[in-house]
Amino acid sequence: MSQTISWQDGKQNHMALWHSESGAKPPKRIVPVDDTLTADQALKLAHEGAGLLWQGDYQNARQLLQAMMRRLDKKTARKNGKTVSRENIRDVFNLYRLGQAQRARLLGMVLIRLDPGFNIALRRAPNVQQACAQVYAYTDAFVVSLRELLGVIGAFEWRRKGVPVPETGGRIHPFYGVFSPVRGEYLKLLNQAPLPESCETAFDIGTGTGVLSIILAKRGIKHIVATDMQERAVECARFNIANAGYQNEITVEQRSFFPEGKADLIVCNPPWLPAKPSSPLEHAVYDPDSSMLKGFLQNLPAHLSRHGQGWLIISDLAEHLGLRNREDLPGWIQQAGLTVLEAHDIKPHHAKVADTTDLLHAARKAEVTRLWRLAVQV
């Protein structure tokens, strides 16, 4: 059911639909604001729970949001420098997540109204019709946070330009809300691990952009079924697969886990951290209680062909953050009736590995991404 918000501008009452991709509830109070509002005033109102409906110059709204970000980040840096002990990494992680959620809530209070046709009736407002049409399905006016709108615009550019992925021989085009394959080390593992003998069929569980299926097709597997429970991911995977020219080799289905039948190879790159996601994009990172990881392992034996293999691609960052015990994953593998044929490791290369100011630097520096080659116990 759509929610509505209302506000008063002078003596005139207004009403519009409210939308949040993260499922955030609408602010209880809406305050029309313009270019005279300072970042400090904006943060004070946001802390009080007021939504700031922007009615000034669009570019000034972006500058206000950036100023709010700088103030929040500076405050967080001072607080962390004084109070955070890095000895208990799990507490540090929980504090980090709490801070990120509070930051997102406050910055999400700067609001933009989108009129029918995704028009923004503000000075110097860009044309966002194409970007919004790829995400929203509204015909009436509605209100979103400026931060979300900027994410939609940024995703439109990512989707249009694509992300170069050498292992596919081309580019992958992530859709809004579908995790982009920016961490290339796990793709290298998939591209280099030895395939099972007589590998004719494969399943790709939780396909996302479809990048793993494309790499497997490029390696010569003729029949691949990719699955994902998210409609946008299914659409994204189908687009990328067709763009790569593998629509005859790969079929994409919308379902939670496994397709019907068995396969010679089943791959899965589940979310790496057992924590609650706070946005659609975070579902690719956070897996509450490791439910997808456990579900994949428990159901894997029933879907492997006689000499088939399951490839689990996952980071050990959760262990370094104290979110999962190091013996948990090997134990779940054994409980599922599986045996480890081999494990292939690679170190991550992203920028945060070298960022010593990051509260989670010690865990990130120690992180290893691993491809587990699994088979049914004999």
UniProtKB/TrEMBL annotation:
GO cellular component: ribosome
Alphabetically ordered keywords of this record: Methyltransferase, Ribonucleoprotein, Ribosomal protein, Transferase
Molecular function GO terms recorded: methyltransferase activity
GO terms (BP aspect): methylation
Pfam families: PrmA (PF06325)
InterPro entries: DNA_methylase_N6_adenine_CS, N5-glutamine_MTase, SAM-dependent_MTases_sf
PANTHER family with a match to the protein in the record: HEMK METHYLTRANSFERASE, MTRF1L RELEASE FACTOR GLUTAMINE METHYLTRANSFERASE
Protein name, UniProt field: 50S ribosomal protein L11 methyltransferase
Native species: Advenella mandrilli
Lineage: Bacteria, Pseudomonadati, Pseudomonadota, Betaproteobacteria, Burkholderiales
